[in-house]
Design goal:
With about 200 residues, the chain is an all-alpha fold. Helix content is about 65%, strand content about 0%. α3 runs antiparallel to α4 (about 85-120).
Length: about 200
């Protein structure tokens, strides 16, 4: 699990300003593929960057799931001696995954900033996104409930009140029975203790 995830194709096409912030495995993948000409770097579309961002999010989710699997498999120290090497191995894997996650989040942030920069002319102002700007809201009349609905509501409330009262009566009755039983048990214990004391 500590091995790095395979790098997605298309990372070599990232703009040069983002290359230093890539993970080490991305730099090696970029070194293996020939760099596109400078004109191709200028023609990277926001759609391409969004696709790379989507793959980055998938990598982040995969790394996070692996971290959860490692922590789930780790047994808490409960007095049982475990191998120190096993704990160190798992700790090293967790550290590597967390380092890779930090790099992936940094890469995702750079992709987001670059997409926002490239699509700044397409962004709409917040005033244009409000749904009812310049339009009057139509008032909706709320009609009162009919007498049949009100009558049914009253009946339901009466039934509910009756059920609650019955339940409370049963609870009180059970409490009284429990109190009588506890008093009888207490008296019985006193009698037994008194008999044992007299025997001594």
């Amino acid at each position: 699990m500590a091995a790095s995830l395979p790098q997605k194709p298309g990372m070599a096409g990232m703009p040069s300003q983002q290359q230093p912030h890539l993970p080490p495995n991305a730099a090696s993948a970029a070194g293996q593929q020939p760099m596109p000409p400078q004109g191709a770097l200028r023609e990277i579309s926001p759609v391409f960057l969004c696709r790379i961002g989507q793959e980055t999010v998938q990598d982040i989710v995969t790394r996070t799931m692996e971290i959860f699997q490692i922590t789930r498999a780790t047994q808490l120290p409960n007095g049982v001696t475990q191998s120190q090497a096993m704990y160190q191995d798992r700790f090293g894997k967790l550290q590597e995954h967390l380092r890779q996650l930090a790099l992936l989040f940094r890469k995702l942030r750079l992709l987001y900033e670059r997409c926002v920069e490239m699509t700044s002319d397409l962004q709409e102002g917040p005033s244009e996104l409000l749904p009812y700007v310049g339009e009057e809201l139509v008032s909706v009349k709320v009609e009162p409930c009919s007498s049949a609905v009100n009558q049914e509501r009253r009946e339901v409330l009466e039934v509910f009140d009756c059920v609650v009262l019955l339940y409370l009566q049963k609870v009180r009755q059970k409490n009284q029975e429990m109190k009588v039983l506890m008093d009888q048990m207490r008296n019985l214990l006193w009698d037994v203790n008194a008999m044992l004391t007299l025997r001594k």
